[in-house]
């Protein structure tokens, strides 16, 4: 059972209401689903398709396009080690080797306690701080084998709970748009031709 | 090239020069001037100028996406030559295009090398080999060799994406044609790109196959061998196929097709891009039911009853027997005791020969082509609209059955009109249909209240404003077989009273029913229609019934009446391709040739007359219906004077109102639109009073779905299992009221009998009604229909 729960369905409807067309909410709802379950299941995709009025195949297509949507269960912490040039020059390969040894899994695997998933990543846009890695997409700069071990110890001991939420968490404070501040949405029946196009002027 | 500019016209001739066409755009293609249309895509303009730009993803009937990059050319629109995607860029004034420059050639080679990098070169075992755009263009535009030394990508091959279509992802070049078709044309976006980059591939959602009624079109438009259709896989090589243009007769839309065969065996139908009709698309039933023509269940020679079974006989013996039956009937009850039902399955020529046999030789007025599931044929004479007019109307008023189920390609055309916001659809239907989600207004009505629902909607101010814009086309058909057709006529009259200028597209369903009715398969003065004949037969007033490709037991809504009629008639002559439920009761079965075994002409629902090709030899000793009619006439002592199809085509042109321009030459290609008939009776049916509901508290709605027990579907192994089966669909709340749940069996009782169906919870069904698909495998809903009742009510109980 990994459809959106009742509270999240309410939230989903609110999110859908922010867009002129329901299917524009596909990605936010995928995030919501990942936040709920830690990863995205086929049931969740079917449910989202139902909510936004698309087919399951379309939602699946969107979902699989993005690396950050996980279609299989991942650990509580997703460890991404950057392997792009700056990081590689400054020891990413050694870091990855060490991480594999320490966690006991190959890149792409999840530890048996379900705590860590180790992944290769492409550039994380912090080349001046190489080598980089991320834990649940929170940057960890200038990594060495020593501070990697410390980080893993801290995560295991739960000392970073406040800083690094579990995988899938998008935001701990959800955006609230008061009714008087909402921009509103145009009716889907309104002409789709933008105002600046000659056809619209006619 | 200055002379091509409108502003540089010669001052001497300026006075007489016509004003420049505002839609003309002067461009130069490969050094030659060309006049293109404003807004035309460069790739199309080049094609008009005789320069074919290679392409994979571009398709004239779909939105360009610029996916494959094969159509790159060098174009200069004033800022110097630039690499331009010709399928995405419209022409601009004075554009200079070079489709053959060294840069263009180098780009084309590069693109092909890229596309071929992961493409398996398994052309010798690939069904597409020989007619493959990738293969052809690799030869004509490719570099000839590849720098790709690495192992190619591998996928499991092939995977079925539906019951009919298989996908080989290794061969796919990600052109987006099939997915675009599914989304944009068919409206069934059940296939989609999955993943990203080098891993991109087409998939369906797990356990949700590409079960579109139009899935076969993706196979036709696939530019490589990635999509293959189960019925054609590994059956032939393209260079072994012979082919002819023809017309599909699976329904009355009359899609233009190419019929292909090899070694005298039908192998494939392909859609032909016909502007006024099908835009190149076919439905899967029309595309794949060729299997029935070569079924081993065909009746291959004439049969005469002997005891409980049939005895194969020679044609001479069968004709003599049939003629004897007719003569006996004439002697016993006169010409009025003979009825002829059918003719919609064959060509115009078949129907005309049978009509003449009936009306002129036998002298009976009881001749009818409809099976009691249509509308009065007089509608054909009332300001008919063409399919094009309907698809370009400002407002389309639907008083029709679910077009997606009955006339699938008409559905595509009207869906396109609504989806692209050309037209607004106002739909009146007893149950939601395929077009409901595209409708501007959907009005669900309970059987018996159709006219009232129409009147109420027409009084709505917004609707009145919309209709006042003019250009209104009404699509009218029989939405509910369990309701009198008078209700539909009354509703039609309401709309026509409100919109006097509205045109009418008559959505008759069966293959050539419009042609058959128009060339004479309709009741003469004082004659009976099919319902009348069956009633008379049941009352013992019919001495001989001739079934020309008709199966009343399966197709007539009131099964009980059909059964009583066939039982009571002493003599039945069946002209059929298969031993159907009805022809099994015949005294003589005359073996008829099937589709693609006989030439002729066909009339579609808008009155368009097109050619039917004879592509294969008739099976066994079967004969075309018209030959059987002509010979039977001879046996009865009259020579109809027909010795070829062309004779009858000429006779039709001479004798049938509106067919004056129909000649062997004019029916080629998109054919010729027959004129409005002037010899049809006006439609006048009194609207019967609809009784109040009593303990039978559910109004029955019965309509067809695409796959049913139609003989051409049943006899096609690829399609037969697609029929959903007979179930009763109720609104979930009604199902709760009955006290049962989805999937359990319920007893549905009409006034005559009870039938047990599996119940399905379906929120597209209106509360208080029960919908059952017609002519499905399983229990027969026809038993519950009384064709003389204005509406049919049923009681539903748990077992």
How is the topology of this model organized?
The complex is a heterodimer of chains A (202) and B (799).
Chain A: H1 6-16, H2 26-37, H3 42-52, H4 56-65, E1 77-82, H5 85-89, H6 92-103, E2 116-121, E3 133-135, E4 138-140, H7 145-157, H8 198-201
Chain B: E1 24-29, E2 32-37, H1 42-48, E3 72-76, E4 82-85, E5 96-98, H2 102-117, H3 133-141, E6 159-160, E7 165-167, H4 177-185, E8 191-194, E9 201-204, H5 216-221, E10 227-229, E11 242-247, E12 256-262, E13 265-271, H6 284-288, E14 303-306, E15 309-312, H7 315-333, E16 338-342, H8 348-362, E17 367-368, H9 387-391, E18 395-399, H10 403-406, H11 408-419, E19 424-429, E20 441-444, H12 450-458, H13 461-468, E21 472-476, H14 485-498, E22 503-506, H15 513-519, H16 530-538, E23 544-548, H17 552-555, H18 559-568, E24 571-576, E25 588-591, E26 600-603, E27 608-612, H19 625-635, H20 645-655, E28 672-673, E29 698-703, H21 711-714, H22 717-720, E30 727-730, H23 732-738, E31 745-749, E32 754-761, E33 769-773, E34 793-798
Parallel strand pairs in B: 1-5, 16-17, 16-23, 18-19, 18-21, 19-20, 21-22, 23-24, 24-25, 29-33, 30-32
Antiparallel strand pairs in B: 1-2, 3-4, 3-5, 6-7, 7-10, 8-9, 11-12, 12-13, 14-15, 14-25, 26-27, 27-28, 29-34, 31-32, 31-34
Helix pairs in contact in B: 2-3, 7-19, 8-15, 8-19, 8-20, 12-14, 16-18
Question: What report would you give on this structure?
Answer:
The complex is a heterodimer of chains A (202) and B (799). With 202 residues, chain A is an alpha+beta fold. Chain A has 2 domains: 6-71, Arc Repressor Mutant, subunit A; 77-157, Glutaredoxin, CATH 3.40.30.10. Chain A contains 8 helices and 4 strands, in the order H-H-H-H-E-H-H-E-E-E-H-H. Chain A has a 4-stranded mixed beta sheet, with helices on one face. In chain A, a hairpin with a 2-residue loop joins strand 3 (133-135) and strand 4 (138-140). The longest helix of chain A is centred in the C-terminal third of the chain and has 13 residues, at 145-157. In chain A, 31% of the residues are buried. By secondary structure, chain B is α/β, with parallel strands linked by helices. Chain B folds into 5 domains: 21-100, Ubiquitin-like (UB roll), CATH 3.10.20.740; 118-292, Alpha-Beta Plaits, CATH 3.30.70; 303-374 and 512-673, Rossmann fold (3-Layer(aba) Sandwich), CATH 3.40.50; 377-506, Dimethylsulfoxide Reductase, domain 2 (3-Layer(aba) Sandwich); 698-798, Barwin-like endoglucanases (Beta Barrel), CATH 2.40.40. Chain B is 26% helix and 20% strand. Chain B contains 23 helices and 34 strands. In chain B, the strands form 8 sheets. A 7-stranded mixed beta sheet of chain B has the order 15-14-25-24-23-16-17, with helices on both faces. In chain B, helix 7 (315-333) crosses helix 19, helix 8 packs across helix 20 and helix 16 (530-538) packs across helix 18 (559-568). The longest helix of chain B is centred in the middle third of the chain and has 19 residues, at 315-333. Chain B starts with 23 loop residues before the first strand and ends with a strand. The relative contact order of chain B is 0.10. Residues 1-9 of chain B have low confidence and may be disordered.
């Amino acid at each position: 059972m990994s459809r959106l729960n009742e509270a999240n369905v309410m939230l989903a409807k609110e999110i859908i209401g922010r867009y002129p067309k329901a299917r524009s909410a596909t990605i936010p709802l995928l995030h919501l689903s990942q936040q709920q379950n830690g990863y995205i299941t086929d049931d969740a995709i079917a449910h989202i398709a139902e909510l936004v009025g698309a087919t399951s195949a379309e939602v699946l297509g969107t979902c699989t396009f993005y690396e950050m949507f996980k279609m299989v269960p991942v650990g509580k912490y997703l460890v991404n080690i950057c392997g792009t040039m700056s990081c590689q020059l400054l020891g990413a390969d050694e870091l990855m080797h060490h991480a594999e040894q320490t966690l006991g899994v190959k890149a792409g695997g999840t530890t048996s306690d379900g705590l860590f998933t180790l992944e290769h990543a492409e550039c994380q846009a912090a080349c001046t701080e190489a080598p980089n890695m991320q834990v649940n997409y929170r940057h960890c700069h200038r990594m060495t084998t020593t501070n990697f071990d410390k980080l893993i110890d801290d995560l295991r001991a739960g000392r970073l709970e406040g800083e690094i939420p579990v995988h899938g968490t998008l935001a701990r404070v959800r955006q609230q748009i008061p009714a008087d501040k909402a921009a509103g949405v145009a009716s889907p029946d309104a002409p789709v031709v933008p105002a600046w196009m000659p056809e619209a002027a006619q | 090239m200055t002379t091509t500019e409108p502003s540089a016209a010669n001052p001497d001739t300026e006075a007489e020069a016509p004003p420049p066409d505002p839609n003309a755009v002067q461009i130069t293609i490969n050094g030659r001037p060309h006049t293109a249309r404003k807004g035309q895509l460069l790739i199309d303009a080049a094609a008009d100028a005789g320069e074919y730009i290679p392409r994979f993803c571009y398709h004239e009937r779909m939105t360009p996406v610029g996916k494959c990059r094969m159509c790159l050319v060098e174009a200069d629109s004033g800022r110097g030559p630039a690499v331009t995607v010709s399928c995405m860029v419209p022409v601009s004034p004075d554009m200079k295009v070079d489709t053959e420059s060294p840069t263009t050639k180098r780009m084309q080679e590069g693109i092909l090398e890229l596309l071929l990098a992961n493409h398996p070169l398994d052309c010798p075992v690939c069904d597409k080999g020989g007619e493959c755009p990738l293969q052809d263009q690799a030869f004509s535009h490719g570099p000839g060799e590849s720098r790709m030394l690495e192992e190619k990508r591998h996928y499991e091959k092939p995977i079925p994406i539906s019951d009919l279509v298989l996908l080989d992802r290794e061969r796919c070049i990600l052109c987006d044609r099939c997915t675009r078709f599914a989304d944009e044309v068919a409206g069934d976006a059940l296939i989609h790109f999955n993943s990203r980059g080098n891993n991109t591939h087409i998939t369906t959602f797990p356990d949700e196959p590409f079960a579109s009624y139009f899935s076969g079109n993706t196979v036709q438009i696939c530019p490589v061998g990635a999509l293959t259709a189960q019925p054609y896989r590994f059956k032939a090589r393209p260079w072994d196929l012979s082919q002819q243009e023809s017309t599909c007769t699976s329904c009355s839309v009359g899609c233009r097709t190419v019929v292909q065969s090899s070694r005298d065996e039908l192998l494939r139908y392909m859609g032909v891009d016909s502007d006024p009709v099908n835009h190149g698309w076919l439905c899967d039933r029309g595309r794949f039911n060729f299997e029935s023509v070569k079924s081993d269940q065909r009746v291959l020679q004439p049969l005469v009853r002997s005891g409980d079974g049939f005895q194969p006989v020679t044609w001479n013996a069968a004709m003599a027997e049939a003629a004897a039956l007719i003569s006996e009937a004439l002697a016993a009850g006169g010409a009025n005791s003979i009825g002829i039902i059918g003719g919609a399955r064959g060509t115009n020529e078949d129907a005309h020969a049978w009509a003449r046999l009936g009306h002129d030789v036998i002298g009976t007025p009881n001749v009818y082509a409809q099976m009691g599931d249509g509308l009065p044929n007089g509608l054909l004479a009332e300001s008919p609209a063409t399919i094009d007019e309907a698809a370009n109307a400002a407002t389309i008023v639907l008083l029709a059955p679910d077009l997606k189920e009955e006339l699938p390609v008409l559905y595509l055309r009207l869906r396109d009109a609504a989806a692209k916001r050309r037209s607004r659809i106002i739909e009146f239907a007893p149950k939601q249909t395929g077009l409901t989600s595209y409708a501007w207004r959907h009005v669900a009505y309970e059987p018996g209240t159709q006219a009232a629902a129409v009147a109420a909607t027409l009084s709505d101010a917004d609707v009145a404003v919309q209709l006042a814009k003019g250009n209104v086309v009404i699509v009218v058909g029989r939405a509910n077989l369990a309701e009198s057709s008078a209700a539909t006529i009354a509703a039609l009259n309401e709309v026509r009273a409100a919109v006097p200028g509205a045109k009418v597209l008559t959505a008759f369903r069966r293959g050539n029913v419009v042609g058959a009715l128009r060339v004479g398969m309709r009741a003469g003065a004082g004659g009976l229609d099919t319902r009348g004949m069956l009633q008379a037969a049941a009352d013992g007033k019919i001495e001989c019934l001739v079934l020309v490709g008709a199966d009343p037991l399966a197709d007539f809504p009131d099964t009980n009446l059909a059964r009583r009629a066939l039982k009571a008639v002493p003599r039945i002559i069946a002209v059929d391709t298969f031993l159907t439920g009805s022809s099994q009761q015949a005294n003589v079965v005359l073996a008829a040739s099937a589709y693609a075994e006989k030439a002729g002409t066909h009339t579609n629902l808008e009155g368009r007359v097109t050619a039917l090709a004879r592509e294969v030899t008739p099976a066994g000793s079967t004969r075309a219906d018209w030959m059987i009619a002509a010979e039977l006439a001879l046996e009865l002592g009259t020579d109809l004077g027909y010795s070829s199809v062309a004779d009858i085509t000429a006779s039709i042109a001479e004798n049938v109102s509106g067919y004056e321009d129909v000649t062997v030459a004019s029916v080629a290609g998109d054919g010729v639109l027959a004129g409005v008939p002037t010899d049809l009776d006006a439609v006048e049916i009194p609207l019967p009073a609809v009784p109040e509901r009593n303990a039978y508290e559910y109004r029955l709605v019965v309509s067809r779905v695409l796959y049913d027990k139609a003989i051409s579907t049943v006899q096609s192994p690829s399609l037969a299992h697609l029929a959903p089966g007979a179930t009763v669909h109720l609104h979930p709340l009604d199902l709760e009221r009955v006290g049962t749940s989805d999937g359990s069996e319920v007893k549905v009782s009409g006034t005559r009998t009870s039938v047990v169906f599996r119940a399905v919870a379906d929120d597209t069904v209106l509360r208080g009604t029960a919908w059952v698909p017609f002519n499905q495998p399983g229990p027969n809903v026809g038993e519950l229909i009384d064709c003389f009742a204005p509406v049919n009510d049923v009681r539903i109980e748990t077992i």
